[in-house]
Amino acid sequence: MEGIYLDHAATTPVHEDVIQAMIPAYREVYGNPSSIHQFGRKARKILDEARRTIASSLGAGEKEIIFTSGGTEADNLAIFGVTEASEGRHVITTSIEHHAVLHAVQSLEQKGYDITYIDPEPGGEIDPEKVRESLRDDTVLVSVMTVNNETGVRQPVERIGEILEDHEAHFHSDGVQVLGIENVDVKEMNIDLMAFSGHKINGPKGIGFLYVKEGVPLTSRLYGGEQERKRRAGTENVQAIKGLETAVKLKDDTGEDTVRQYRKFKSLFLDTLRKEEVSFDVNGENAVPSIVNISFTGMNVETLLTNFDLEKVAASSGSACTAGSVEPSHVLSAMFPDEPERTTNSIRFSFGLQNTEQNVEEAARRIAAVCKRLTK
């Protein structure tokens, strides 16, 4: 029985074109990009070209892109970098953020910052008016993710950006789950800082980047050299950056077709579960095509995941960072405070490069068989 991977929101397989782009960079480019000799210049050229490619994809300037080790570092650099460089002591975020954001602001809270956590509406979206109502004169940062990593619900970041246009607070968004699913234009979205990760778009792990609007104050979190215009010390990961650039190009070239395919996968998956008479509810509204979070009536998440794995179907209980944890999902707890059972019977399925219509349908049949067996 062939394994079926439905956990692309956790990580994605590296695209073959990405691998092929990285191989010559490993074999032929070994100079330090900070060195002025020909070997260093060769490495620097890769960084410069990748920075231009990525900036162009986002509607940003190349000086506004900082390479990091991934989405977590990018989120942390944005949150700590802005708050340490500013005088305000109030931060607004949501209760459904990725832990890279939540744990960072909790650390600020321990240092005396005042944090406002906004809960989502039942459909999983944040009400932008609650952000407006929470703003204060000393609000220095607002952090709201673009797409929730557990439910796939798209947040109204454009509306929040409009609200913040006349306020001095800086607007940060975790954009890890939106890249490759939607076209991102940071200027149109009125976003000051946005974090991204390579391994979510069929690029290599260990590489990401942070968009920082020119003029936004940012204190470096790492002490060392003057790389990334003194904003992120450390020798750049040239080979991974080449892979990241290739993944972004692939995303730009195939994005619309890919999203249509994911939409088809999701419909086929849910329709098959219904035909098999599985009892379930979808958690969240206005979710991106690549993610669906399902509450299975009367089930237990650990039992489900174990049995899905035995049937060679890979899925997740939510964030990959909490996989294996028996703690209820903080996202679903915030969305369904009066329905605690949803926090213990919900599974996230996410579609991507490893999927076909055939294996998506087959996965739904295997899942249905597990549910029927467990209810007997």
Query: How much beta, percentage-wise?
Result: 5-15%
| Counted beta strands | 12
What count of helical segments does DSSP give? 11
Morphology: globular
Mean pLDDT: 95
Question: Strand-and-helix sequence, N→C?
Answer: EHHEHEHEHEHEEEHHEEHEHEH
User: What is the highest CATH level, the class of the largest domain?
Assistant: Alpha Beta
Structural class: alpha/beta
Spatial order of the strands forming the largest sheet: 2-8-7-6-5-3-4
**Roughly what percent helix?**
40-55%
How does this structure look, described?
Its EC number is 2.8.1.7. Residues 4-361 form the Aminotransferase class V domain. The protein starts with a strand and ends with a helix. It has 2 domains: 4-12 and 254-375, Aspartate Aminotransferase, domain 1 (Alpha-Beta Complex), CATH 3.90.1150.10; 16-250, Type I PLP-dependent aspartate aminotransferase-like (Major domain) (Aspartate Aminotransferase, domain 2, 3-Layer(aba) Sandwich), CATH 3.40.640.10. The chain has 376 residues and is of the alpha/beta class. The protein contains 11 helices and 12 strands. The strands form 3 sheets. Strands 2-8-7-6-5-3-4 form a 7-stranded mixed sheet, sandwiched between helices. A 3-stranded antiparallel sheet has the order 9-10-12. The radius of gyration is 21 Å and the shape is globular. The mean pLDDT is 95.
